[in-house]
Amino acid sequence: MAEKRDSLRCRWPALLAALLGGCSLLSPAPPERPVPGAAPPAAREVGAAPLNPPSPGAEAPLQSPVPTRQYQLGPAAQSLVTQARAQVVRGDLPSASVSLDRALRIEPTNPLLWIELGRLRLAENDAHQAEGCGRKALALASGDRSARAQAGRVLADALRAQRRNQEAHDLENQPWMN
Amino acid sequence: MARPSARRRRILVIAGGGLALVTLALVGWVIYLDRLVTREFQGRLWSVPARVFAEPLELYAGAPVSADDLEQELKRLHYRTGDPASGPGLYRRRGGDFDLQARRVRFVDELREPARLRVRAGSAAIASLQRADGTDLPLFRLDPLLVGSVFPVHGEDRIVLTPAEVPPLLRAAVKTIEDRRFDEHHGVDLRSILRALWANLRAGHVTQGGSTLTQQLVKNYFLSDEQSLTRKVTEAVMAVRLEARFSKEDILVAYLNEVYLGQDGERAVHGFGLGSEFYFAKPLDELDVGELALLVGLVKGPSHYDPRKHADRALARRNLVLQQLAEEHVIDAATASRAVQRPLGLRAPGSAYVPAYLDLVRRHLKRDYAEADLRAAGLSVYTTLDPRAQAAAERALIRQLRALDPPGHSRNGQLEGAIIVAEPNSGDVVAVVGGREVGADGFNRALDARRPIGSLVKPAIYLAALETGRYTAASILEDAPLSLTLGDGSIWAPQNYTREVYGPVPVARALAESMNLATVHLGLDVGLGKVADTLQQLGLAQRPALNPSLLLGSVELTPLEVVQIYTALANGGFRARLRAVRAVLDEHGTPLRSFKVQVEAAAPPAAVYQLDRMLMLVTTRGTGRGAAARLPAGTVVAAKTGTSSDTRDSWFAGITGRYLAVAWVGYDDNRVTGLTGASGALPVWADAIASLKPVSFDPVTPESVDDRWIEYATGLETTPACSADAVLVAVPKGTVLPGKPGCGGTRSDTTADKLRTWLRNAIH
Asked: How far apart are CA B346 and CA A49, in angstroms?
């Protein structure tokens, strides 16, 4: 729970992050999902304008970038996270849970809080919920490389705790995890 | 000689034996009573119903709480204006600056002592928060509002005081008025019995009771109300044994917690702790002399002196008590005469009763607790109820149903409705309204009205379609008539609500305008099984029947079940288990159980994001346009309307940046309403959300998806500059869309695009 590497603060200065984000646009990660339009749907056959298959040309990756960003916590949520960490150190996991619950009420879509909650669930040996938190953090952290990597680590740990080592391994080999 | 003496001896033996037996029986009886008193009193468990608390309001710089909101909240919590230095529960406001002393309150994780606080609030939000010494405070929570109790056993309700919580003045006053020799006697006070007897003899009827506090306690705690000599004797014996076994302090505090002080419908108000809340809406330690004197005076006859029914009697009684307290030097004469001048100072107890929400809490807790424990074990239940959202939802439902009532309607069988508001990320249910009689226990439509959901099912169909990867928001569907022969040989030929046929339409438009024919074509192509799978992934508990009518929402759900399904849509594809209870504490404040946030991946975030973008079009271009008009300009809402067959049920589900809310309107007897989702449930939803400072729904764009402009009517890619009919949709990255002729490239023109172009040029 108290690993050093999991500092909440983003380590990348904003400019560097922006540049990295920008560079990554030029060499994007492979699409996560199967390409749309591969098999024409039956209902579409009666339609007027069929869906074009995606062109594999150089233009495709340039469609539109995901804006890079850097999530931070506001002072109120930050103070609750600090409090929760102190409670974890004291071994008072239930109070830590209450503190993070309060923080989530203030910033329910901040991935950093879901990362924190995922770590707490790991400390509670609740790998299943840790997985949920990790996945949610990962989804919310879109565009924030550092937050994504942290969320990915929580998720990998949660998968491993459920003996899903191959999934954890695959996750850790994602380019954005490093 | 010998005979009579022998007989006498026999008589003596019999008499002696009899006497011994009687004595033995008496001793046995006394021992029995002693045991009873000791056992019962030692392990005394006040019958204390579970108390239910709302979510406390969190104050922090930037919290969306205006100065007026803050004052309203303080009033809701029965804070009074006054010098905050002089005690808890007092505040002072100057413009947006507040100075207050918060009360001693228990939260799930801490017991907080009274604390001074300075708050600066603006017209929209909290600006800053400081301790009394001027140092900044990151956040502070106000008292959790008590919103009710799970209904008590025999109607007996109380707030139990610990010895430390009993104000010294209350001890002194109760002894002075009810039992002056309490500290000297041993349970029974012969002198006062004789005095009472004499007074009663002279009057010819009972005017005085000679009972000590101990006897009154014994009577209330162990015995019936029956007036008989046996009971009197039993009471006296038990009182003496109680005094022999327990300290005066124990007995006095028990008395203060036991005593009956009034009636609230079926609820009996016991103890000074609850008495204070019931008559003055504040904790005991905040009562002034006059208020305490009234409560003490009520002991003699709570219904005779009922201050709400017989204010004159109550006032006279209070003043008599004050006078006696002054005579006995418990208070000084000046204090007494000042208090006599003041009105009774009654205030309505607590806040509005929220039976529909409490119903949800009770069901939630019944999974873990026996009904008897909820009614008597003194639990504290901390819920996710937001009193502001609850009030807004109640107001909205009442007001809008009134506006929707057909002319000449009767109160019997009138239009009904329900609304639930939730925070979708955590699954916290913040408000539940189960009908227009918001203050009454009754049919809770929010939890129990199971109705066909109509077009509210459609997002699940479109989500299933997006998940296949074969459709995007810009794909073209055919809105054309169809008829199917069902398994039973009947013909199913659905129609659009408008009875029109629209021909080829983009997916996004078919959903926004809730076109039945296009949707049925889509659903049949995707497959009923896949649609049912999606519904179950989203949280539908039971697999629906795989009839084609499923595609038009024949599945019957309660508003609560609809909320559960829509959380995943409001939440990037994560299902958050709905939660009304955060934690349960026992009577000592020890946490017994907590209910954590539970999230699980239910649907791919990318597909849900694409769907959400389309649901936003519902309120800008489709059937939910009316919602936008009722909210602040520019508020982005993702929503869906639903109307069941022949307008029997009107539904609206809508997602804003902070809340997911679902409203239903219909008749209990399932009559035709003539209302669509847009004309019935939508106004209820919008009215509630509008008063909750709505912020725009702004889902995170997954990295595998792009926001793109298409022409609403044709699905062709365009730009806002090129087409007045351009709408924003999301498609998987790399999707090439057919462009609108003459509209240039297929690229959108966002800031991010410009940055990318700039970067590319800079590098090359």
From this structure: 73
Superfamily of domain B153-341 in CATH is: Biosynthetic peptidoglycan transglycosylase-like (1.10.3810.10)
Cα separation, B620 vs B629, in Å, equals 10
Cβ of B700 within 8 Å of Cβ of A139? The answer is yes
Sequence length of chain A is 178
Compare A130 and A59 and report the one with higher pLDDT. Answer: A130
Nearest CA of chain B to the CA of A106: how many Å? Answer: 8
| Nearest CB to A140; choose among B55, B700, B735 | B700
Helix (H) or strand (E) holding B318: helix B311-327
Inform me whether the C-beta atom of residue B702 falls under 8 Å from chain A C-beta atoms. yes
pLDDT per residue over B213-229, tens digit each?
898 888 887 776 666 77
- How many Cβ atoms are within 10 Å of B31's Cβ, its own excluded? 11
Q: Is it the case that residue B250 has pLDDT exceeding 80?
A: yes
**CB contact at 8 A, B148 and B353:** yes
Identify the residue whose tokens are 């208070």.
Answer: B331
- With CA atoms as reference, report the closest residue to B708 among A131, A155, A60, A176: A60
Question: Of B663, B659, B672, which Cα lies nearest the Cα of B624?
Answer: B663
Distance CA B762, CA A80 (A): 43
To the query of whether residue B178 is one of the catalytic residues in this protein, the response is yes
- As for the ipTM of the complex, it is 0.81
Q: Give the tens place of pLDDT for each residue, B445-472.
A: 999 999 999 999 999 999 999 999 999 9
Helix axes B248-258, B271-280, angle to 10 degrees: 40
The residue among B703, B686, B602, B684 whose CA lies nearest residue B637 is B686
Q: B757: nearest CA in chain A?
A: A62
Mean pLDDT of B318-347: 93
CA distances from B39 to B31, B240, B587 (A): 12, 15, 20
> How is domain B51-145 classified at the CATH fold level?
Penicillin-binding protein 1b fold (3.30.2060)
Minimum CA–CA partner of A21 in chain B: B756
How far B419 CA lies from chain A's nearest CA (Å)?
Answer: 21
Is A105–B704 a contact, with Cβ atoms under 8 angstroms apart? no
Better pLDDT: B472 or B44: B472
The pLDDT value given to residue A114: 98
User: Which tokens in the block code for residue B440?
Assistant: 């009454």
- Among the listed residues B55, B73, B178, B717, the single catalytic one is B178
* Residue of B149, B211, B351, B455 marked active site: B455
Distance from CA of A70 to the nearest CA of B (A): 13
- Residue B120 has φ and ψ, to the nearest 5°, of -110, 120
Strand ranges inside B235-313, DSSP E: 260-264, 267-270
Q: Of 3.40.228.10, 1.10.290.10, 3.60.15.10, 3.40.710.10, which CATH number belongs to B428-690?
A: 3.40.710.10
Confidence at residue B377, expressed as pLDDT on a 0 to 100 scale: 77
B175 with B77: CB under 8 angstroms?
A: no
Q: What is the pLDDT of residue B2?
A: 52
- This prediction's pTM: 0.80
How close B465 comes to chain A (CA, Å)?
Answer: 10
Is B455 tagged catalytic?
A: yes
B736 → closest Cβ in A39, A52, A67 = A52
B174-183, B551-560, B658-667: segment of lowest average pLDDT = B174-183
**Residue contact A33–B604, C-beta within 8 A:** yes
Tokens describing residue A64 = 């539109």
Q: How many CB pairs under 8 A join A and B?
A: 209
Structural domains of chain A sorted by starting position, each given as residue range(s) with its CATH number in brackets = 75-177 (1.25.40.10)
Residue window 6-65, chain B: list those with CB within 8 Å of chain A.
Answer: 55, 58, 60-63
